[in-house]
Amino acid sequence: MNICVIGTGFVGVVSAAVFSSFGNKVVGLDIDPQKIEKLKQGIVPFYEPGLKGLLLEQQQAGNLHFTTDYQEAVSSAEVIIVAVGTPSSKEGKVELKYVKAAAESMAPHLAKGAIVVVKSTVPPGTLSKLKELIQTKAPHSEFHMASVPEFLKEGTAVEDTLHPDRVVIGATDEGVFAKLEELHAPLNAPVVRMLPESAQMAKYAANAYLATRITFINQIADLCEQNDADIKDVIHAMGFDKRIGHHYWYPGFGYGGSCFPKDVKELAAYSRSVGLSDNLLNHLDRLNEERIPKLMAQYEAAVGGWASKKVAVLGLSFKPHTDDMREAPSIKVIPLLLEKGATVVGYDPKALTTVPYFIPENPEATYTDDIATALKDADVIMALIEWPEIIQYDFATARRAGSAQWVIDARNQLDRLQLMKLGFQYIGVGR
Ligand SMILES: NC(=O)c1ccc[n+]([C@@H]2O[C@H](COP(=O)([O-])OP(=O)(O)OC[C@H]3O[C@@H](n4cnc5c(N)ncnc54)[C@H](O)[C@@H]3O)[C@@H](O)[C@H]2O)c1
Q: Which domain holds residue 392?
């Protein structure tokens, strides 16, 4: 099948590489010429385990190409997959300008019968808006539209795309369902057919549910801190209930990343727009926004103020195995520490090149990919993200005997007893 993938970000490059590995001819298109130049040379412009090898393999096999030229990419494509960004606007509503621009740019080049698949996360009603835009630009075009939301997770994106839990196809036309089922057949995954609006709601609802789980367990963690309960034990005990399970419990600084905050905000904004302001989603967004300032105030009191403290901030990406810092805790925590007079050394094994895009330069903040350098003379160690390099580190080497030193374990992933034995003052979440 000839496929065009519009938008070569995390989702677009992974989709392009995976679909080409099934023998399809895929062209990846982006409006960012620097990104395309790198991709042409086999360089992935971000860190994603397993992607570089797959990309190079498919480029060398002649199955995968990259371009900035809409005509070249779209005119011979049977399926056009839209994977451009859908960030939040200031008011929290989803920003559709990139998907709309992509629709307008592709319109004059669509081949007869082409299927435009929206993989970007968009709210119900978007397909008809895009269809109208395309028809305005190219009144005689004959094309179909579908919604196939993406469920991959950064850090395991290749694996998730090769082995998805399900493929959700939102369409209204039997021929479109059949063609898209054929495209996804090599994945051997359950395929579920539905209306585009259901597919779009399913994507938002899945992210909102996971965000709810995180917010819920943070609230329980807050209650544990009022007594001798330990949230780790509470989660362990709860998890045996098959309706609950042991997986996906992350008490800490709240949910972040490129998707949960913006998708919850959009669903909250949508609920307000239809007169359902008391919807849970509005509360979820507020609780998550308040989470970091609230915990940081608690920690400030616990360490006796941040002024003149040297703080090692470990983990700058929003989760392990990615260099993506969109809505990472570090981008709120570090400016707050600096504002309060701390000096900061940030550590991350992969995200150093991303830092300048997210944290304003400050002479009191330096960054390193060497954990020992970050820990040198640290008064406070804040472990924000459970990179293996952080949770497996031997913190004995960072202990300064005779002086007070704190470890803030924002993910409850470090060995609390060992750290206390070493003489650190340990602060976890909900324990
Ligand atoms: N990142 C994830 O983990 C993830 C997971 C599931 C779903 N999603 C959804 O997938 C979509 C893409 O997310 P992402 O993280 O890959 O985004 P991204 O920001 O990493 O990449 C988007 C790309 O689109 C390009 N672009 C913007 N406008 C364009 C245009 N008019 N024509 C061509 N290219 C254009 C940008 O230059 C950029 O390279 C979003 O809707 C997101 O919500 C993301």
A: 260-427
